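<instruction>
Derive structure tokens from the sequence
<entry> Chain with its tokenised backbone below:
===
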Amino acid sequence: MKIAIVGAGAMGGLFGARLVLAGQEVSFVEASGHAIEVISCHGLRLETPDAQTTVQVPIARAEQFSGFFDLLVIFTKGFHTAAAIDSVRHLVGPDTWALSVQNGLGNADLIAEVIPTERVIVGMTNLPADLVAPGVVHSQGEGHINLWSFDGEDASRVHEVAAVLSQAGLPCTADPQVQVAIWEKVAFNAALNSVCAVTRQTVGAVGDCAHGRQVLSAIIEETLAVARAAGIAVDRQRVEVAMDYAVDNHRQHKPSMLQDLEAGQKTEIDFINGAVVAHGKRVGVPTPVSQALYDLIKISENRD
């Protein structure tokens, strides 16, 4: 399969390296000149507890590629999605599909402005990956991918993509109930990312504090209430189990939203808590705690 990974960050690097090693034809579309230079010169290195592997892979800005791809995998942050998919519209042919397993809500709608909705695949992944440096990705631990067509139809290409990912060591399930997995991850991220970012505390510090747990619980409940009002059969227990695991096993971790604030960068708050608030208004579910966290992050973005 001819695949373009749009965004050579942590997750893009993990997926790209695994797919190259599995024999797929992979190229990276990247906007950062520094990342392009590093990967062009030194390759992409994937570090796992078992091995360190370097793969050579084509990487360039979007305008330097031509021809159609079978699959575009979008791995930018949400606020870059619209620009990213627009930059690769010349690589979209009549049989090109796109996949988004990005954090948050709303990315697929932006992708569908360039690629027809019936050829967009959405999903969720909890595979671990950290960008150690440009071109160097570390992955430790297990995870999986759930995906399905954005329009809800059962398409053979969805199953084909799931098989390609699984064969590459990226465990993947074609799941008609993928929106459940997506919303449960949104609940997890809306809680932990925003609270850690606002308090400037690690996962363990927030989870050990009774006040922290109270706010986490309130955001989870609001998010899942919005999902249920939209007809999505989310399970609070699964979110709580994931939260407890993170607090127990990733105590020193700083979620991406906190890392972004510390670096003076824009966060994905609009695609996580902001999206929950917006969906809540549409389905008539109040989300006061999520709204407060959203507003506080926005203040921090402006300050930092």
About this structure: The two ends are 43 Å apart (CA to CA).
